[in-house]
Amino acid sequence: MARSEPKTLESLLPRVLARLAEESGRGQALTPVWASVVGPHLARHTRPHALQGTTLVVTVEGEEWARSLEAEAASLCEQLNARLGADSVKALTFRMESR
Questions:
Q1: pLDDT value at 30 more than 80
Q2: Global pTM value
């Protein structure tokens, strides 16, 4: 059996978080990955809520954040999948934060 190159924790962590989110249905495990994809400004106003199959439900502070993210949904899914593994997130849905 051929030995593979050792993996770094940094390269493994996003996939472990994706598995946790998928198994628990809780998207909060993806918060570090989400923040690295959307950047600190958007991360302050949005957060992953649940992973339902391959749909990531994102909590947003208001409709303007949802509209902004909807326009970028395809790109965000692509970036998330680059970190989490192919087809981990196929769609994003947005829900307003309850206060």
A1: yes
A2: 0.75
